[in-house]
Amino acid sequence: MSYQFEVTRHDDGRRLDALLRSIYPALPLGAMMKFFRKGSVRLDGARADFRTKVAAGQMVFVPWEAPDAQPEVQVRHRPLDVLYRSDSVLVINKPAGLLSQPDTKGEDSVATRALGYASDPAFGAQLVHRLDRNTSGVMILALDGQALRSLMVCFKERTANKTYLALVSGQLPPSGQIDAPLLKDPDKKLVRVASNGERAVTRFRRLATDGQFSLAEVEILTGRTHQIRVHMNHIGHPILGDAKYGDFSAKPQVRRLGIRRPMLHATCLVVNSPDDCLKEISGRRFDAPLAADMASVCQKLGFEIYS
User: Fold this and answer.
1) According to the UniProt entry, what is the EC number of this protein (predicted)?
2) Residues 165/290, Cβ–Cβ less than 8 Å
3) Would you say 229 and 239 are in contact if contact means Cβ atoms under 8 Å apart?
């Protein structure tokens, strides 16, 4: 059995081995390399090198059966709060309580709702980064393959800058930087500061305080799971409403303020990229209006600048 397919524009510029691994995820890498060495994988009829970057329109021949058909994903027609949309990217303001990606098949999420905004049904919409379920704010998704790869490079190389607003316990210092390694425990689904963890750096600037609580602008220089939540707790200023990493001594006050989730909002995103496919958004600032519940808490605390 064999299979032949045409490279689409979404895979233009990808390495051939990466393309094949995405199509045949269950095929062992060693077995794939063996077929390359034997010359059984061909590009436009010629023996192919696994490092070759393919171009749209080229024909790839492999000595395997056609890949299994992907199950149809249910499109959620519930709308997203769209901040910007083009043929290649979608920028949204994610509400708190909505998963970025479903935990189980058919579950409501940004990823499933975004399929309804796809420019090309053959590609769909792809997450580039995630926000925790109960974190609101700006997210960017890719609507074609070139934009996806370019955006992933931006996030990996930290040329995509994310800024958050956080309400925390206590009187936060005017500014500071937290440089503390984080270790993830997948069994307990917790993250903690540990010397053998991955380096994590967070910067913050206090915007307002009443002595008991503070509003901060927070920038992450590394993208670790739960980074802001763990780091703010580590310095003694946990995020209000954070049941997992929060300050339980503040629970009565949190209840009085009507807080039902961690008061964390991704307020701004700027992507800087030299790639042509992102030139429309490179250097552009995308701001997500503060979620209503967090704005209400700010107002109650007298932090009217963000109410």
Assistant:
1) 5.4.99.-
2) yes
3) yes
Domain check: are 265 and 203 in the same one? yes
Question: Are the C-beta atoms of 91 and 269 separated by less than 8 Å?
Answer: yes
Q: What is the number of structural domains in the chain?
A: 3
Q: What is the pTM of this model?
A: 0.81
How many angstroms separate the Cα of 11 from the Cα of each of 39, 57, 146, 197, 206? 22, 10, 7, 35, 44
Residues 137-180 pLDDT 10s: 999 999 999 999 999 999 999 999 999 999 999 999 999 999 99
At 235, list the tokens.
């310095």
The region that residue 139 occupies, defined by phi over 0 for left and psi between -120 and 50 for alpha, beta otherwise, is: beta
Domain containing 7 equals 3-62
Closest CA to 91 of 289, 293, 303, 264: 289
Indicate if 144 belongs to the active site.
Answer: no
> HSE on the CB side for 220, CA within 13 Å?
29
- Which residues partner with 264 through β-bridges? 166
At 307, the pLDDT band (50, 70, 90 cuts) reads very low
